[in-house]
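hey
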């Protein structure tokens, strides 16, 4: 049987048990026999609910629709841009992708970084 593990951390060679931040489970390594479910575990920002049907098939459904979903995606991608330090590495392939695919998120991240920098210097942007 093939088992899968997915993580947003690239290049893992050894899986070590850790405490999941959800459900109060003990130290463990999470594996699944379902490749689609493993890939779902790798998604950092959940804009949908997912799980298994009674027949053991993976399902997902979106719970944010319309304008609320759009605002959520803009915020989530702006957070990713800031967390990964992509504003200072605009030539990075991931940075280029986010800048082109999510220009509103890129602009929000840049504006927030400028405002934060101005606050640290005691001024206004």
């Amino acid at each position: 049987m093939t088992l899968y593990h997915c993580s947003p951390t690239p290049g893992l060679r050894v899986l070590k048990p850790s405490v999941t931040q959800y459900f109060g489970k003990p130290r463990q390594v999470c594996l699944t026999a379902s490749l689609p479910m493993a890939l779902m575990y790798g998604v950092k920002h959940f804009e949908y609910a997912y799980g298994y049907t009674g027949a053991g098939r993976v399902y997902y459904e979106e719970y944010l629709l319309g304008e609320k979903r759009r605002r959520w995606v803009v915020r989530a991608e702006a957070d990713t841009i800031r967390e990964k330090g992509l504003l200072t590495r605009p030539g990075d392939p991931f940075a280029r992708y986010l800048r082109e695919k999510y220009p509103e998120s890129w602009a929000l991240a840049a504006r927030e970084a400028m405002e934060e920098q101005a606050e640290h210097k005691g001024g206004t942007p």
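The chain is about 40% helix and 10% strand. The beta strands are 48-52, 58-62.
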